Amino acid sequence: RAPQFSDLLGKTIVDIYGAEPESEVIAIICADGSKYLMYHEQDCCECVDVNDICGDVSCLLNTPLTKAKKVVETSSEKDLDERDESYTWTFYHLATVNGYVTIRWYGESNGYYSESVDFVQVP
User: Fold this and answer.
1) CA–CA separation, 83 and 99 (whole Å)
2) 61-82 tens-digit pLDDT
3) Is the dihedral of CA 84, 86, 89, 90 positive or negative?
4) What DSSP string describes 33-101?
5) Residues of the chain under the 70 pLDDT cut
6) Cα–Cα dist 29/38, whole Å
């Protein structure tokens, strides 16, 4: 089974790399030795990257996660303007007893390409 973002619930993150606006890859390292990547394999007519980080990522370190939730919002015809033909917001909500962080990814394309964020476990 492919890893789900919710698999992070209860894990302790010891390091996060790339959690900053305009990043195309975020690496998450957990105390149990597991490692995860959040990214998008870019194609010609699309752009997907971190748009914003709300909260202090350091509050997620060295304390078990009490929340690990992914929420996706896609465009509808009435939401689009002249510059975007299609877009997707992907929100990753993380929390510990020390604080709450939302990582907001934004993907846009001509409508024929994926705008999703991949979440994978790496060796």
Assistant:
1) 36
2) 999 999 999 999 887 555 555 5
3) negative
4) S-EEEEE----TTEEEEEEEEES-GGGGBTSB-SEEEEEEEE--GGG--SS-SEEEEEEEEEEETTEEE
5) 76-84, 112
6) 12
Tokens of 115: 């705008």
Q: How far apart are CA 116 and CA 123, in angstroms?
A: 22
Q: Specify whether the CB–CB gap between 64 and 14 falls below 8 A.
A: no
- Token digits of residue 5: 């973002």
Q: 57 with 19: CB under 8 angstroms? A: yes
Q: Which tokens in the block code for residue 62?
A: 């060295």
